[in-house]
Design goal:
Elements: E1 3-5, E2 8-11, H1 29-37, E3 41-44, H2 46-49, E4 61-63, H3 66-73, E5 77-80, E6 86-91, H4 97-113, E7 117-124, H5 139-151, E8 156-160, E9 162-163, H6 169-176, H7 185-199, E10 203-205, E11 208-209, H8 233-241, E12 245-248, H9 253-256, H10 263-266, E13 280-286, H11 293-297, E14 304-308, E15 327-329, H12 332-341, E16 348-350
Parallel strand pairs: 2-3, 2-13, 3-4, 6-7, 6-8, 8-10, 9-11, 13-14, 14-15
Antiparallel strand pairs: 1-16, 5-12
Helix pairs in contact: 1-12
Length: about 350
């Protein structure tokens, strides 16, 4: 039986900008759960909800990778909800044997505990990726392994790249104290953006490091979830479980697909059941980071932009500076009240129940 949803909203806390709420180890989860209670559907991204082994995603939350979030707000893609992805793990061959064994254990556990459809094979890169904290010198090494996974039937990718330890240990120490910026946030975002752009499917990244995981004592509450176990892969699986199928908008396929993607093989046609950007009622963001595609595009689709005053970041890009129509709220509780009271006349009909956790 079809379900009718009027209150479709989005929550964004951009990665690596030192937000007071969000950007650490799932510390925006309480805000996301609050807004989810005030929504029929809440669209967010991994940076908001990713809490390592403690990742806790409500059933009505849709998790969308950052590049795909931009394309959604640009009206270039639609979202098909309630799909069960075939997930593949793509891993940097230079990861330690310990990390490879832990990854295999996590893959098997997720299949049994979450009931996920995960391909048994781990798709290793042919050569070390040799990532640094700024970019991938040879991205084709990773992309070729991802293509092998897609060719094997994967519709979502869990990507594991070995990253070097930060050059400045003070940055990492500051992060462990719940301050400053995530030292690996930028490269993680670049990796997932690259993969999602190439293949037009959901992806999420779980790092491994030159220095194998070891217990590091008590850390700040905002990052404590990252210090409970030996892998971040479980949270990636949870995010992919809540990811939609990506449907190119009519006329946007050539613009979106890459050399690796054969448009004829995608065979993804929009339907009346797919979620469009115009279905959204509200977009909730930190007060001073309104220079990204979703914030700029929101008013074009009559989406109310709510900027949260008590979630300051290191940026200085308020909506006023860009003359973007918006409403200022003091906190996420006030934002939730606004979501409950303000919805669009346009309704979104979905034929299925929401994700089972």
């Amino acid at each position: 039986m079809a379900k009718l949803y009027r209150n479709v909203n989005s929550l964004i806390v951009p990665t690596g900008i030192g937000a007071q709420i969000g950007g650490f180890a799932g510390d925006a989860t309480p805000a996301a759960k609050l807004l989810a209670k005030a929504s029929d559907v809440l669209i967010t991204h991994p940076n908001v909800i990713n809490a390592a082994l403690l990742t806790d995603i409500p059933k009505n939350v849709v998790v969308l990778e950052g590049y795909l979030m931009d394309r959604f707000f640009a009206n270039q893609i639609l979202l098909r909800l309630n799909v069960k992805h075939k997930i593949a793990v793509v891993m940097d061959v230079s990861a330690s044997n310990q990390d490879k064994e832990i990854t295999e254990n996590c893959l098997n556990a997720a299949k049994n505990v979450y009931g996920l459809d995960i391909i048994d094979e781990i798709f290793y890169t042919e050569k070390p990726v040799n990532a640094n904290l700024d970019h991938l010198p040879e991205p084709e090494i990773l992309m070729d392994a991802c293509k092998n996974a897609v060719d094997a039937g994967a519709t979502a990718l869990a990507v594991i790249v070995k990253l070097p330890d930060p050059d400045d240990p003070k940055l990492l120490d500051k992060y462990k104290k719940g301050q400053g910026l995530d030292p690996i946030g930028a490269i993680e975002a670049k990796i997932s953006h690259m993969v999602s752009r190439q293949f037009l499917i959901p992806s999420a990244h779980a790092p491994v490091f030159d220095t194998p995981y070891q217990h590091e004592g008590v850390v700040a509450p905002r990052v404590a979830a990252e210090h409970l176990g030996n892998t971040y892969l479980a949270s990636v699986f949870k995010c992919l479980q809540h990811s939609p199928r990506i449907i190119p908008s009519t006329g946007a396929l050539k613009l979106l697909t890459s050399d690796y993607t054969d448009p004829a093989e995608l065979n993804l046609k929009p339907s009346s059941e797919d979620l469009k950007v115009s279905h959204l009622s509200n977009l909730v963001v930190p007060y001073d980071c309104c220079n990204a595609v979703p914030m700029i595009e929101a008013s074009n689709y009559e989406i109310q932009l709510l900027t949260v005053l008590n979630n300051q970041t290191v940026l200085d890009d308020p909506a006023d500076f860009y003359a973007i129509p918006h409403r200022v709220v003091n906190n996420y509780l006030e934002a939730a009240g606004y979501l409950l009271a303000n919805t669009k006349d346009q309704e979104y009909i979905n034929p299925n129940l929401f994700y089972d956790n």
